[in-house]
What we know:
This protein is an all-beta fold and 81 residues long. Helices cover 0% and strands 65% of the residues.
Amino acid sequence: MRAFLEPVTVELSPSGVPLRLNWQGRTLRVLEVRDVWEAGGLWWQGQPNREYWWLVTGRNEIEVFHELGGEGRWVLSRCAD
Length: 81
């Protein structure tokens, strides 16, 4: 498992489920959503809650998140080869 914490562009379905990720010039198609959960941010520092997605692509399993109520920016958190 490797940690990245790098911005990633996520293409969502109309219902809000990630379909594709664009990261470092590569497009990764989401084959399966393994898990979705919400975790609290550092509320004492004013951070909002985050929504995490554990996704299966053709090559990897990837964890991405975005801040709820924020700008909608997605971050690639971790990747398992």
